[in-house]
Specification:
- There is one protein chain.
- This protein is of the alpha/beta class.
- It folds into three domains: about 40 residues, no CATH class; about 120 residues, no CATH class; about 180 residues, SGNH hydrolase (Rossmann fold, 3-Layer(aba) Sandwich).
- About 50% of the residues lie in helices and about 15% in strands.
- The protein is built from 13 helices and ten strands.
- The strands form three sheets. A five-stranded parallel β-sheet has the order 7-6-8-9-10, with helices on both faces. It has a three-stranded antiparallel β-sheet with strand order 1-2-3, with no helix packed on it.
- A hairpin with a 5-residue loop joins strand 1 and strand 2.
- Helix 3 packs antiparallel against helix 4 and helix 4 runs antiparallel to helix 5.
- The longest helix is centred in the middle third of the chain and has 23 residues.
- It is elongated, with a radius of gyration of 29 Å.
Length: about 375
């Protein structure tokens, strides 16, 4: 038989626990002290009442919905997606509930999305994995309140802050640029996403009404990045001050590798800067759940300090089109008539993002 005896310290609180093993005849076989509450950093989890079937069902559905939305989230809002998971985990910590599942789910989503591997993202993934695994081990043992939990949660939020700062900074060109010159043109180099639906002139036609400079449209439907290198030579003869590049989608569709696409995009960037032109780069989406090119344009923007037009722009052309059920209720919001190429309203939407990127680089002097 086994008994646990608590010895008090004279103030009525348990000081130390002893484990006594007694034989069937009543003889004391073993007298062994157990760890005290004061010396043990772990506090036993309080038993909770079992959830009803309805609550378990709603919790499972809610969790599935959050995971699905996380997988479908755009790279441009990745910081907000991570915020939701960290807030959920923090609430679990405050309520003394196991929260390791949220951390591991967030880790899995970030890995599945195949974002560009930047330093802040790697740091965040490391903390998510470490804290999630440690919390999971203690949850299995029925121990949830640890000093490590609060320290780990604080470190997670600091890693998130670094990630949010770096992730949003990628979209902005931080290097010094020359003053805006209303005489030098802005060159738009791209495929059919730049040209729009004929006779619609695409976003370059709308950009003319927003920017105080000539706009050159060097679009050609179906071209790849290496073909864009040849077209760029003709455009650079006009000495543009900015080149807006929207290329790379057809490279993926034709089976070109990520490596070759990156090499050719880098050639475009180097050629532009070699002629004194700044670069604005469109982020090309190649999948709704994950990107097989692993955030190529975001990686190039980070490495070359470029202004980036987020993939939110092109994704919205698909979302607000007949390709999705939303079109049945929001026809006035339609940005594309064929599910990918911009209509006049979509071209204005794209041009507004490009104009905003130019304004962040040059200030209000570039606006009309």
């Amino acid at each position: 038989m086994k008994y646990e005896v608590a010895r008090t310290d004279g103030r009525g609180t348990p000081d130390q626990f002893f484990c006594e093993h007694v034989s069937p005849t009543g003889r004391l076989m073993q007298h062994q002290p157990m760890s005290s509450h004061r010396d043990n950093p772990l506090l036993e989890a309080k038993p909770s009442a079992p959830l009803s079937l309805t609550r378990r069902l709603f919790r499972a559905l809610g969790s599935s919905l959050v995971v699905s939305l996380g997988l479908l989230s755009f790279p441009s809002i990745a910081t907000w997606m991570v915020t939701v998971w960290l807030l959920w985990h923090t609430v679990c910590v405050v309520r003394d509930r196991p929260g390791f599942v949220m951390l591991l789910a967030c880790f899995g989503i970030l890995v599945a999305k195949q974002f560009a591997w930047m330093p802040a993202l790697v740091l965040l993934l490391g903390w998510l994995l470490v804290v999630g695994i440690v919390r999971g081990r203690y949850a299995i043992r029925g121990l949830t309140r640890l000093r490590f939990i609060w320290v780990g949660t604080a470190c997670l939020w600091m890693a998130w802050g670094f990630f949010a700062w770096e992730w949003n900074r990628v979209s902005t060109c931080d290097r010094a640029v020359d003053a805006w010159d209303p005489v030098r043109p802005v060159l738009c180099l791209g495929d059919s996403l730049t040209s729009g639906i004929i006779p619609e002139p695409g976003y370059p036609g709308q950009l003319k009404t927003m920017i105080d400079a000539p706009i050159m449209n060097l679009e050609q439907s179906g071209i790849t990045v290496d073909q864009g290198v040849n077209r760029l030579r003709r455009g650079l003869a006009q000495k543009p001050q900015v080149v807006v590049i929207e290329l790379g989608g057809h490279d993926f569709m034709r089976g070109h590798s990520r490596v070759s696409t990156k090499v050719n995009l880098q050639k475009l960037i180097d050629a532009c800067r070699g002629q004194g032109a700044e670069v604005v780069l469109f982020e090309i989406p190649r999948g709704f759940i994950f990107d097989p090119f692993r955030g190529l344009e975001r990686e190039l923007a980070y490495e070359n300090d470029l202004a980036l037009v987020p993939d939110t722009v092109i994704r919205n052309l698909v979302i607000w089109s007949p390709a999705t059920p939303l079109d049945a209720w929001f026809k006035d919001w339609r940005l594309s008539d064929d599910g990918i190429h911009s209509n006049p309203q979509g071209s204005k939407f794209m041009a507004a993002y490009v104009a905003d990127a130019l304004e962040r680089m040059y200030g209000e002097s570039c606006r009309q």
